[in-house]
Design a protein that fits this description.
Layout lengths: L7 E7 L3 H19 L9 E7 L11 H15 L1
Parallel strand pairs: 1-2
Helix pairs in contact: 1-2
Length: 79
């Protein structure tokens, strides 16, 4: 994927499908982190976490808290 000069990255997953969140953490996020490792910290893009399909709240498999905490831990290893 192409990330050079990106100012923002949208990290999207489906709240009703744990597999999509796990894939985000284990496949997509490391790729993004590796793309920006050599950049000046001031050039790091802003990352937004988006839980999609909020209309399926009754089928939620990933809580908001879990998503925030697990992403935070992963981002700490990105630095």
């Amino acid at each position: 994927m192409y990330y050079r000069y990106a100012r923002a990255v949208l990290l999207c997953f489906s709240i009703d499908e744990r597999r999509s969140f796990v894939s985000l953490l284990t496949r997509f996020l490391p790729e993004v982190c590796n793309s920006f490792k050599s950049n000046n910290p001031e050039d790091q893009p802003v990352m937004y976490l988006l839980g999609l399909k909020s209309d399926l709240e009754g089928k939620r498999e990933v809580s908001t808290t879990e998503a925030k905490v697990r992403l935070s831990v992963k981002l700490d290893t990105c630095q």
